[in-house]
Write the structure tokens for this entry.
Amino acid sequence: MKNEILRFENVTLTYHTKRGETTATDALTFSVREGEFVAVIGPSGCGKTTVLSLAAGLLTPSSGEVTRRGSCGYMLQKDELFPWRTIEKNIFLPLEIKRQNTAERRERAIGLAKKYGLGDFLLSYPPQLSGGMRQRAALIRTLATEPDILLLDEPFSALDYQTRLNVCEDVSSIIRSEEKTAILITHDISEAVSLADRIIVLTKRPARVAFEHELDFGDENRPIKRREKPQFSAWFEILWKELNT
């Protein structure tokens, strides 16, 4: 079994405002192993995005501990590409921010773009690309700094259904080809089942782990192919019931 790369141990986070206290997570405990693709689902407003912020170190727990080995890359709901920068310059942006803008890093980033179908669009601007291609560029941008863990905050929610399916396929292929650890936050059960090795189901706020499931698709990692499997609908029904109990 591979080593843990991220662990939440009894993590409680309480927000303090003028109106009082709000507890977002309560004794939240789970772990993620190297190379694993984990999906986190739960009721609306339960604190799923808070989990990613804690994992990234953007928030500090009120109690408990988050242990992380390595760096994180964050992929947001929208691609957030700057329209006045070319795709190439957008991909280089995190390298500039983190002062890692070396020739070797730029060459690797361009290599990833070419490998995953963006080679002919490096000098194009984001408005010239489809939504799916922009999201692919956003993922390459996230990978440019070579993070150990990818944090995916509903990265397909802004796309129409058909584009969403295609981009899911692209993103899954890239993440697994690059052997990255990924944590996906999503409200879409079908998306979680089609993409993940393991699914964590959270309770209503304050978030705790209600259920954990290892999925049984064997070596089939392609989201489209998983949707054709008989166990896909079975998992959907299980998760639907767990979210609505």
User: Anything to note?
Assistant: The chain is about 35% helix and 25% strand.
